[in-house]
Amino acid sequence: MEILEVINLNKIYGKGENKVIALKNINLVFEKGKFTSIIGPSGSGKSTLLHCIAGLDNITSGKVIIDGKNISKLKEEELSKFRREKFGFIFQSFNLIPVMSVYDNIVLPVTIDNKKIDKNYIKNILDLLKIKDEINKFPNELSGGQQQRVAIARALVNKPEIIFADEPTGNLDSKTTDDVMNLLKICVDEFEQTLVMITHNNDIAKMADVCIAIQDGNISNVV
Length: 223
Ligand code: ADP
What we know:
The chain has 223 residues and is of the alpha/beta class. It has a single domain, classed as Rossmann fold (3-Layer(aba) Sandwich), CATH 3.40.50. The chain has helices spanning 46-53, 76-86, 102-111, 119-129, 144-156, 174-189, 202-207; strands at residues 2-13, 20-31, 35-39, 61-66, 69-70, 87-90, 162-166, 194-198, 210-215, 218-222. The strands form 2 sheets. A 6-stranded mixed beta sheet has the order 6-7-8-3-9-10, sandwiched between helices. A 4-stranded antiparallel beta sheet has the order 2-1-4-5, covered by helices on one side. α3 (102-111) packs parallel to α5 (144-156) and α4 packs antiparallel against α5 (144-156). The protein is globular, with a radius of gyration of 17 Å. The structure holds adenosine-5'-diphosphate. The site of adenosine-5'-diphosphate has 12 residues, from β2 and α1.
């Protein structure tokens, strides 16, 4: 079943001399419960594509349809609610809130909407990510790898339908990379979540069900 469809997507940054055509007439379909990796050289348009399909950036033309809804037509408020309820984001920069404890950072996407915290589910995530001893600390007391795992826990806490990840293991050592990938695979295989991940790591790209290669703003290959 398809969960996300991209139709004739174009993205242009700037105007006149500064104009950059970042994405050219992209058409893609993402299936529910599958892991899709996005690869390509630096500057090819990977992050732009991820941001456009996740409703984090305006598109210049075309359609992004998620769960039957054209997200480019949603008002900003509707879109941010849609994002909070359906998406989890994992970026290279962790964007943790320094004055909040690790635990409060993790549950923020739930508490912000006054929803109930699923303590068992959170305990599972903390165990799998090996951060349960850190929950009362503050982000600046953690290593980079630990902060990334906290950011991953936060992205998963709402049980998102789609997890968008931009090089989530880029700053991690190989052992932590394996732990993170194992957890994300569990999300896909057992919880039927859909994972869309940019990576430079060929081994990770190959773990995906579908691998999209992008070059100069065009899809150069889908396998
Ligand atoms: P990648 O993620 O593959 O490294 P990006 O999506 O970041 O590539 O960038 C694609 C192209 O769009 C590049 O030429 C980049 O310089 C340009 N670009 C990205 N973001 C902006 C922006 N905010 N303003 C202008 N140009 C941008």
